[in-house]
Amino acid sequence: QVQLVESGGGLVQAGGSLKLSCAASGRTISSSAMGWFRQAPGKEREFVGTISANGANTNYADSVKGRFTISRDNAKNTLYLQMNSLTPEDTAVYYCATSTKYGFSLPITTIGYDYWGQGTQVTVSS
Predict the structure, then answer these.
(1) Are 33 and 99 within 8 A, CB to CB?
(2) pLDDT (tens digit, 0 to 9) for every residue of the chain, 126 residues total?
(3) Closest Cα to residue 108, out of 70, 58, 43, 53?
(4) Predicted local distance difference test score (pLDDT) of residue 1
(5) Rounded distance between C-alpha atoms, residue 126 and residue 117, angstroms
(6) Sign of the alpha-carbon torsion through 26, 31, 117, 71
(7) 18 and 12 in contact (C-beta within 8 Å)?
(8) How far apart are CA 49 and CA 102, in angstroms?
(9) How many CB atoms lie within 10 A of CB 29?
(10) SS3 of 110, please?
């Protein structure tokens, strides 16, 4: 079992930045691909980005490419999401997830992940 806890969400003005963290416990994440997803009210949960087990490879949704950066510190069992140039369209609950099936592949759908955090709210005001 893996427990994931996100933090760092909040209210920010358009154009601002936030950095989300996702702390894992229960088992090491160093061999697991990890991802960020988000869900806005009334919408499906959507892919934001993913990072390979060793951190060498990443993939992002087109909507966040160039603005968001995923990173990880396996020594701290922690995943990060740096979000810059935020817009109101980025408002959502952000979830981190870990995969027991993929390490160096980069799953971009929810089915590729096994464990999820409880989410952290990000609200961007215009």
Answers:
(1) yes
(2) 899 999 999 999 999 999 999 999 998 899 999 999 999 999 999 999 999 999 999 999 999 999 999 999 999 999 999 999 999 999 999 999 999 899 889 999 999 999 999 999 999 999
(3) 58
(4) 87
(5) 28
(6) positive
(7) yes
(8) 14
(9) 26
(10) helix
Residue whose entry in the numeric block shows the structure tokens 């935020």: 86
Instruction: List, in order, residues 6 or more apart from 21 with CB less than 8 Å away.
Output: 6, 7, 8, 78, 79, 80
Separation CA 81–CA 6 (nearest Å) = 10
pLDDT at 93: 98
Structure tokens at 116: 């999820």
> How far is 123 from 102, CA to CA, in rounded Å?
31
Which amino acid, residue 74? N
Q: Which pair of structure tokens corresponds to residue 24?
A: 């894992």
Amino acid at 7: S
**Which residue matches tokens 């060793």?**
54
